[in-house]
Design a protein that fits this description.
The protein contains 13 helices and two strands, in the order H-H-E-E-H-H-H-H-H-H-H-H-H-H-H. By secondary structure, it is mainly α. Helix 7 runs antiparallel to helix 8.
Amino acid sequence: MLRAGPLSDDSVIRLVNRRFIPFAFDLSNFGFLGDDAALKFVTAARKEYGNGMVNTPELLIMTPTGKVVGKVSNYGSTEQVLAALRGALEGAPEFAKPSADEAKLTGIDRAELHLDLLDLDGARAALESETSMRAHYLRGHIARRRGDWKAMERHFAHVEGDEYRDHLAMERAYELWHKSDYKALQATTAKVRASSARYTEARYYRGLALFHQKKIDAARTLWRETIASRAQDRWIYRADWALCASKQRQGRGSVMMTSDRKSESALGRIGYMGRRNPDLYR
């Protein structure tokens, strides 16, 4: 659930990669992520994790010595995960200090650091004297994250070239998503090339555009095809969640695996319990 939801969110990923070391493991050694050392480390703090009785383990935030400094439900929202991460850093400030290498960063590199730490004001300030294409793009990206669409377009007017073509299309797609302009969203996301790093992201939102135009079968087909044709990434996980949730939205019953019903998951999951996919319920 976390993988398809909060752990696929750009803000969460950026902050985790800057200030935490993420790892996952199976509670039993039967899964492909079985890890005796990880299990021993975690069960020293949470003994119940070692008795096989925990159905949906929490996301634990721990220090290198095994102290739990934060936690969030497996069904938590992006906002709840970010709050837990920030709370953990506030409670253990020694892990929130910039490294020696980070302290030396300037210009665009410093702006990227501030973006990773979710400090949009700091990122904008770091770009103040920068004039490169990348700087203009980042200014537009910051404006997009603030929902300042006019400023976004003002900065993107200075960005050109094939390198940014797919990025600009996807950044602009977020304005269309925000404004619920699904027909335009469908057309804009279709422009993102298959060779782009943002292709699966675009396909996910193109599916949402179809879904909210009541073209639910087309949306489900697109998500299935995307999942089948691409290596797993965060947008593939989200597409699988949407695929399962779209069946629930249509009132066709549970997506959980039973002896006489197979899951709708294209990734072979038994389903996605917990909160509803917010992208389908607007």
